[in-house]
Amino acid sequence: MSIIEAIKRAESEHxxxxxxxxxxxxxxxxxxxxxxxxxxxxxxxxxxxxxxERAQELALEERAAMQPIVAEAAEIFRVASQRLNxxxxxx
Length: 91
Hints:
Elements: H1 3-9, H2 13-28, H3 38-41, H4 48-65, H5 68-89
């Protein structure tokens, strides 16, 4: 299962944040993260608004950078932001 699918199926907001944190930690430990600016990789994640802001920044960078790691991160944060927004909107 991909991280995107795991985020979509996560049972709680806590699980979404856990998955995003694990993803970002993996970038710090590999050379793949070098394509992302440090502010986009920083930890901890400071809530839903932080996820949304990173998703928006990554979407802008994705258009400019054309790097696979930026596209991957943009999609992951976009899905996470949508998932967290859906959780907030649910009764």
